């Protein structure tokens, strides 16, 4: 039976089987054996999502807001220059890893209030004779949000230092000598504040894949890429409707980015506001209430800059230290937004927190991440594992494992869930010659709004099975016919065929 994602049965089981066969055939070769063991292990671990984008794009702040805890150090200090993994662990611990597998415990300090943890990398005691250079850090933390997803914070793709940005590139798209390494991430959230050439180059590299030695060129990088227009509150220059203008900007970005076919969705998010809202304190709510009583002009004048807002000689019914804290945690836009919401009738801190969270865009991002990554975790993981397997098999030819390669390639090319994800990424490019309504239907059918049958079919959750079947059968017919249309170009007809197969997969899941 086909699964909801439209994947072939048990893609993870199939990947396990192939990796197992390769391990048996390459049992006497230590390096591929170790890589294959890693590949197999990853299939059973949480999905790995990397946050990428330029320095100060807001990655670490967004990580904190997604996790709901202040763990990732923000602002470019030394410890934000290494790739850092945040994974679930029942007790907090931080470990430094060297490229050769050596480890060291890291002493952790709490930064000054709002800046996450501070990792002391100067005095590391390695479990190896000589000191090592830190390759990456692993933070284990008891946060529910990390149970299904490991989040990887990266130092930035167009950092001031080439060395630093190369660490991120290595993680996402291993190249040259590292090209047979197992890719670090299964999916990417890419943060941008504007569309610049460096971002486009980077996204193209992730999307186009890398040259991984003879015969494997063009293997794709991570399949899932979602774009975030970050620090969205700053885009409207602090106007009260900043998130609306940010949405316009994001829509323009979305248009540009989607035409490049490199992202599956683009969402504006104010990560700073999202985090502050999630951790709103009663004292802060009381401060917003007090500020709501200040005449509008007076407050606007005080809010011209963060410095001005916190100045002791500016008279406001909130102590200057608390004002400084509000500015740091919420940003000026967040303060204006909170005060306006209270003026409009919000009466308690829980409601205010919920309103601010919605307006930050983080809820929308969570639901997109769920649709694009969470519901397809098996496919994304299997894709990483099979890609890595293909690289290993190509790099170590001459054993019985050679016979596995054609099957691995076929799976990478044919698995329907992979096809859906690739198509989701390219749907809004100009290449597709379909009317908007059909485009929307196709997007839905291939799982763009979720992979449950009723979502794919555009029906209410309680639609009768017979209605769902009829709808699915109609969709199969319609999209098969579209695919055969004599005027359809190659890309469009392949896309229509993908939709038809999604409809067939959905049909096979329905009772009766
Ligand atoms: N106004 C505003 N500032 C933000 C937001 N997100 C991050 N920042 C600030 O931008 C700076 C860089 O953020 P950081 O998360 O360290 O960026 P990274 O280098 O991409 O990890 C910090 O001073 C953050 O407080 C946001 O949504 N709104
Ligand atoms: Mg950072």
Structural class: alpha/beta
Taking the sheet with the most strands, its summary is:
10 strands, mixed
How large, in whole angstroms, is the Cα Rg?
25 Å
Helix content: 40-55%
Strand content: 5-15%
Q: How would you describe the shape? A: globular
How far apart are the first and last residues' alpha carbons, in Å? 14 Å
Ligands bound, unique: guanosine-5'-diphosphate, magnesium ion
In words, what does this structure look like?
This protein has 512 residues and is of the alpha/beta class. The protein is 50% helix and 13% strand. The protein contains 21 helices and ten strands. Strands 5-4-3-6-2-7-1-8-9-10 form a ten-stranded mixed beta sheet, with helices on both faces. β8, α5 and β9 form a beta-alpha-beta unit. α1 packs antiparallel against α2, α2 runs antiparallel to α15 and α20 packs antiparallel against α21. The protein is globular, with a radius of gyration of 25 Å. It starts with 10 loop residues before the first helix and ends with a helix. The N terminus is likely disordered.
Features:
single chain; 512 residues; alpha/beta; ten-stranded mixed sheet; 10 strands; 13% strand; disordered N terminus; binds guanosine-5'-diphosphate; binds magnesium ion
Summarize the structure.
This protein is an alpha/beta fold. The protein has helices at 11-25, 30-43, 59-67, 162-172, 197-208, 232-235, 242-260, 271-278, 282-292, 296-302, 306-310, 320-343, 349-360, 362-372, 377-395, 405-414, 416-426, 436-445, 453-457, 465-484, 490-509, and strands spanning 47-53, 83-88, 93-98, 103-110, 117-126, 134-141, 149-153, 187-192, 224-230, 266-269.
